[in-house]
Structure formats: C-alpha cells, structure tokens
Amino acid sequence: MADIFEKLIKNYGPIGQHRERAHGYFAFPKLEGEINSRMKFRGKEKIVWSLNNYLGLANHPEIRKVDAEAAKEWGLAYPMGARMMSGNSNLHEQLEKELAEFEKKEDAILMNFGYQGIMSAIDAICGRHDVIVYDAESHACIIDGLRLHPGHRYVFKHNDIDDCEKQIQRATALVEKQGQGGILVISEGIFGMAGDQGKLREIIALKDKYTFRLLVDDAHGFGTLGKTGAGTGEEQDCQDGIDLYFSTFAKSMASIGAFMAGPRVIIDFIRYNIRSQIFAKSLPMPIVVGNLKRLHMLQTMPELKEKLWHNATKLQQGLKERGFDIGATNTPVTPVYMKGGVEEATAMVMDLRENYNIFASIVVYPVIPKGHIIYRLIPSAAHTDADIEETLTAFTETKAKLDAGAYKVEAIPDMAN
Predict the structure, then answer these.
(1) Residue 220 has pLDDT above 80, yes or no
(2) C-alpha distance from residue 202 to each of 190, 211, 234, 238 (Å)
(3) Residues 95-100: contacts with CB under 8 Å, at least 24 apart
(4) pLDDT of residue 227
(5) Domain of 50: which CATH number?
C-alpha cells in the first residue's frame, strides 16, 4: 500500500510544479500599503489592476470609520456560534431584509463566503433525481458545487442559447423518464474572465417552453450593472425571471460574505438545509455592520459606479484604439488577449512589473490553451486617468516587444527569493 502523501510529493499539479521559482512573485505575491490603485510590491509602487475593488470602497474613509467603530463596539467574537444555534442577531436579519428588497426578492440568506456558499446551496437544492444544466464557463465554485451533486448534469457551450435549449431538452427527457426530479439552470451575470454578460433574458425566455428554475451567480454584476447597481438582472430588465440571485460581498463591496435572494419559501428551505452555514460560525458583527454601510453607500452614491464606468470605458477604448483584442466584454472586466508561450508571458509580466510598474493578473496554460496569454485588468472607481494612460503606454510598448520576439526565454526565472 502506498503512502497517500507520496503521490502529492511526486506531482504538485500544473501550477504547483512551478512553486519554488514562482512563489512570492507570480504566485502568492504580497501587495502592501493602503488599498488603492497604486500599492507597493517588493518595496516599489505599482499601478494595480488585480483587485476586485470595483467601487473603490476598500479604503474609503467612511468605510474605514464604520469598520473601526464596529470592531471596537462588538469585537470579532460576537455573535458566537452558528446562526441556527446561537449566532443570530437583529443586524444579520436587517442585512438580509435590505438585500432582498434591493434585489426585489422576497427574502435573502447571508452566507459566510461566496465560494462555499453557492457550493453548499447547490448541494441543498438539488437531489439525486434533479438535473443541472450549466454554462461551460461557470466559475470554479459552481463546478465544485456540481461535484457535490449526485444526479445528472449537462453543460452547454458558453452563452450558446441553442445549445442551452438542447441541454434543457436532454434534461427534460431524463426527468420525464425518471418520473421525478426537476431542472436547475445555472449561469453567471458577468463571466469574470471574459467580462461578457450571461444571456439571462434569452435563458428566461426558454421558460415559455420548458419547466426549470434559474440560478444566477452575479458576483461581478452586483454593484456594477443596472440603474441602481442591483446587477445584471436589472441591467437586462429580467430580474423577475431569475429564481435565485446570488452574489458575494468580495467584489463591489470589498468585504467578506455573500447572499442568495429568492422566494421566501425557498430561501427558508435553504436556511434550514445549507450545511456550510448550519455548521459554521456566523459572520462576525463588525463585518455585518460594515456590509450594511457598504450596501447603503452602493445605493446612495451613484457617483461611485459612474466613476467605475468612466475608468472602464477609458481603459477599454484606449486598448481598442491601440489595436488590442479585448474580446466581447460589455462590463468593467477587461481581458486583453495575446499570443505567446508561458515563458514569453513570464518575461512580459516581469517587464511590466519591474520596468513599467504595472501589476496585472495573467492567465496562461494550463488554464487556457497553449500559445495564448490573457491579461485580466480590473478597473475600479479608485483608478485615475494618469493610471490608465501609463498602463496603455506600458501595454503598447511591451506588446511590441512580445511581437518582436524579445521575450523568448528558455526557462521561467526563479523569483521566489
């Protein structure tokens, strides 16, 4: 019998195999200083495009004040225990009520984290006779939720409504054959890598022909889309057709936690059956108080979203004018598509960070096919016109180097030390 640790030591995985050379620079980097559009990396100031601080609330003085006062008043321990047992409070319920009203749903449930929350919600909702139909580019938290599902699941090509309908047809046939079970369709409001919106209106229109419920993960849409910032459903004028609306506080609200909103009877079912919340300590009171403040600012300060969109539009137009491929994004998420190998991408990232002072996230093989590079830029209300202009210049110059073959190197350099 083999030692279970032996296989782990022999194979650290496609990303982990580079850990000794990449740790602290390409993986697990440390950004220091006040959260803003410019922070320090290895002691030098960089323009940062990797933070999901869409509305610039992370270091807003009003937020800092409320967070500090709440921590002083309540401490991090209160309330103790899981909410079902001893960890509930009026403020937890107030936040749920206000979120439900904002999203025009009957009720909402707070969750400690977005990732574990939606995983566990899928597990609670779907039994072994139920069928899940989901978009191929769904976030990892959804995929891991599917892994918990004991029944069938069908994937449709990204934002391909014809294929979505085909998979719903397959699911319908299976449910009818079984004589029991239902169908849950899952999409995202904004797909966080490509920046395109899910085709929610088109999916909802399929309800005229088929029986299913729709769950939307709107992590990147909440606070950034819609007239009031209520998200992609509001943006597409189809919020009523979304049966379960999910989002996290980790993006626009720059905080911790998440919520799911929907019909009261269904939210109550989830409340009493979602294992990741039933068996976990509730959100600490300072986080709840801070999230109430963030929600109020999101609702009453439209200038934050306006500034975000000013910056996103300026950045995206500037990239397109310079010949960059930013795909089909119609949201603040800004992917920049390039051609090149892992080694070239590594050298380009280093050049951007060390010589142009630009810190941006990059995606390469094995996450995407070989020969492709994706930079994902996340504009925020905290960025300035100067940040954008410097970044456009840096990308223009480094892209020219990439195309000229200047970044062809033999191996990923050791940057761990």
Answers:
(1) yes
(2) 15, 15, 14, 10
(3) 95/259, 95/288, 95/291, 95/292, 95/295, 96/259, 98/292, 98/295, 99/259, 99/261, 99/295, 100/261
(4) 96
(5) 3.90.1150.10
Domain end call among 300, 321, 351? 300
Backbone angles phi, psi at 281, to 5 degrees: -60, 140
How many helices (H) and strands (E) in the chain? Answer: 16, 14
Confidence label for 411 from pLDDT (cuts 50, 70 and 90) = very low
Give the integer Cα–Cα distance in Å for 371 and 345. Answer: 10
- Residue pair 234/224 in contact (Cβ under 8 Å)? The answer is no
Look at residue 27 in the predicted model and tell me its pLDDT: 86
256-281 pLDDT, tens digit each: 999 999 999 999 999 999 999 999 99
Report if pTM > 0.85: yes
Sheet with 334-339: strands ordered across: 334-339, 372-377, 361-363
Helix residue spans in 79-160 (DSSP H): 90-102, 114-125, 140-148
Which residues, including other chains, have CB under 8 Å from residue 257's CB and lie 6 or more apart?
Answer: 110, 111, 112, 113, 114, 248, 249, 250, 283, 287, 288, 291
Q: Are 411 and 350 in contact (CB under 8 A)?
A: no
**Strand (E) or helix (H) holding 397:** helix 385-403
CB contact at 8 A, 296 and 161: no
Same-domain pairing of 80 and 38: no
CA 181 to CA 172: how far, in whole Å?
10
**Is the domain of 128 the same as that of 247?**
yes
- Give the pLDDT score at 413: 58
Task: Give the number of domains in the chain.
Answer: 2
CA distances from 309 to 223, 235, 313, 326 (A): 11, 14, 6, 16
The tens digit of pLDDT for each residue in 173-212 reads 999 999 999 999 999 999 999 999 999 999 999 999 999 9
**Bridge-based pairing state of the strands 244-248 and 213-217:** parallel
For residue 208, give the DSSP letter: G
pLDDT at position 228 is: 97
Q: Which amino acid is at 220?
A: H
Size of the chain in residues: 417
Number of Cβ within 10 Å of residue 70's Cβ equals 21
